[in-house]
Please model this.
Amino acid sequence: MIQEEPRRFDDVFCELVPLAVARKTLIPKSCSPATIWRWITKGLEPAEAGGERIRLAVTYVGRTPYVTRQDLDAFFKQCTAARLAKPNRILQRAADVSAEELRAAGLS
Model:
């Protein structure tokens, strides 16, 4: 795995976009501020059961939250992967039910 050189704070600072501006210009669908706040604080369900929740990374400068395009891109890619993996988890759980369990439930 190739490790990237750590970015300097000056480089990151130039890329920061206030969250209020990002909500209106960088996020494809108009989202409620409450939705974005949930993405930051609670996050979304992970792709793997028991995995770490997917959260939107923010940087605070004073009291103002900022994001970068890279943070938004990474967040949406993780959300997409989790969304696509969910049907596979449901199918796996259905396959895990044994014939005995079905008979006991009166379904077989």
Observations:
- The longest helix spans residues 69-96.
- The longest strand covers residues 64-67.
